[in-house]
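In response to the reviewer comment on reproducibility (Comment 2.3), we provide here a single inverse folding case reported in full, input and output, so that an independent group could reproduce the run without further information from us. The structure tokens appear first.
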């Protein structure tokens, strides 16, 4: 009655809101803090930068996931205002750097979630995230949210550019399932591009700190480098390799470019790139080694047959002598016997996988035969 229509209604409401505000149905690509993290799929960002139309409609449930996160942030802000900490400067814009976009210098602007000031007047950047239970548990177990940490670096860089002497941040990560919080207290040295995780504190009192805190160096500079890499792909009409596996990684299940990314044939994305001499030499070496591998495999198979024949003609499964031992042993192995299954079951369980195949053609010339 409701469960099957609420996501559809939410997606339509969000689309109508964007239209009323004069915004496009799909947010156009631009370098911004939320896209700066190293765990963001570079291939997806290049699709966006090249303005290639999405091949898949945005999952309606994912629309609710995004909107739901905003509500969690607002409720956390409400709770924060009941404490001795003052939350202010909500959604203030900050300039986070300059990169190249569409062939021109482009200023990266973002909006901070806020600034929190304690009772003694110390101010810190306040960033809020609301995520699923399993990812939250990974962070509790010791993994670090690199995308969020990178976003914090960009914002603290921007605050410094705005002449605000703030170098610490509180990154609050809320578990949507349990309402538990995870707090990362961060210190960022803008000049050295060095982020220090001073402590990790959970709602249940779990506290992680120590004499040797976790330090990340270069998150900001790497983000700027990635934006430039995206611009290079946009300019050349190329795509980077795939970073995620569509059958196992959740990123692909929500991606609007999933089908385009996994389609067969990438000839249309080679652009005007000419293979450089060093890589061409590597390609020839690959072809040579592949040829040698086939010869060796055939030789190994021939020797294996001879050894098996030696044992079988003597009706033994093990023999030793002259410093060598040859043995054939049996092992139990489970397999699926399709002959025992109905044909309709086999058909229903048969899926088509898309795999990447590397093809290397090389004019070996004086280097050998192709």
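Designed residues, in position order:
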């Amino acid at each position: 009655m409701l469960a099957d229509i609420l996501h559809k209604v939410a997606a339509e409401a969000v689309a109508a809101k964007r239209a009323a505000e004069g915004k496009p149905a799909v947010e156009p690509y631009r370098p911004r803090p939320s896209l700066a993290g190293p765990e963001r799929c570079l291939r997806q960002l290049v699709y966006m930068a090249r303005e290639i139309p999405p091949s898949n409609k945005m999952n309606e449930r994912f629309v609710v996931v995004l909107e739901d996160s905003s509500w969690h942030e607002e409720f956390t802000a409400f709770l924060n205002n009941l404490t001795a900490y003052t939350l202010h400067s909500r959604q203030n814009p900050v300039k986070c750097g300059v990169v190249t976009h569409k062939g021109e210098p482009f200023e990266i602007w973002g909006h901070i979630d806020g600034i929190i000031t304690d009772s003694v007047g110390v101010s810190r950047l306040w960033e809020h995230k609301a995520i699923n239970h399993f990812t939250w548990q990974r962070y509790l177990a010791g993994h670090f949210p690199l995308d969020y940490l990178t976003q914090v670096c960009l914002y603290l860089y921007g605050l410094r550019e705005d002449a605000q002497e703030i170098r610490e941040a509180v990154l609050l990560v809320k578990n949507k399932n349990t309402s538990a919080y995870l707090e990362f207290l961060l210190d960022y040295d803008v000049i050295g591009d060095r982020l220090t995780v001073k402590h990790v504190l959970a709602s249940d009192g779990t506290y992680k700190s120590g004499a040797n805190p976790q330090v990340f160096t270069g998150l900001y500079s790497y983000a700027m480098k990635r934006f430039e890499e995206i611009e290079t792909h946009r300019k050349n009409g190329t795509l980077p390799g795939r970073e995620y596996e569509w059958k196992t990684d959740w990123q692909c299940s929500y991606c609007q470019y999933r089908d385009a990314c996994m389609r067969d044939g990438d000839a249309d994305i080679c652009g005007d790139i000419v293979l450089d001499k060093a890589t061409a030499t590597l390609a020839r070496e690959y072809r040579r080694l592949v040829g040698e591998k086939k010869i060796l495999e055939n030789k190994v198979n021939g020797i294996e047959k001879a050894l098996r024949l030696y044992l079988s003609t003597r009706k033994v499964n093990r023999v030793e002598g002259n410093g060598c031992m040859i043995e054939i042993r049996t092992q139990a192995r489970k397999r699926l016997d399709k002959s025992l299954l109905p044909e309709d079951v086999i058909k229903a369980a048969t899926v088509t996988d898309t795999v990447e195949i590397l093809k290397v053609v090389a004019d070996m010339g004086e280097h050998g035969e192709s």
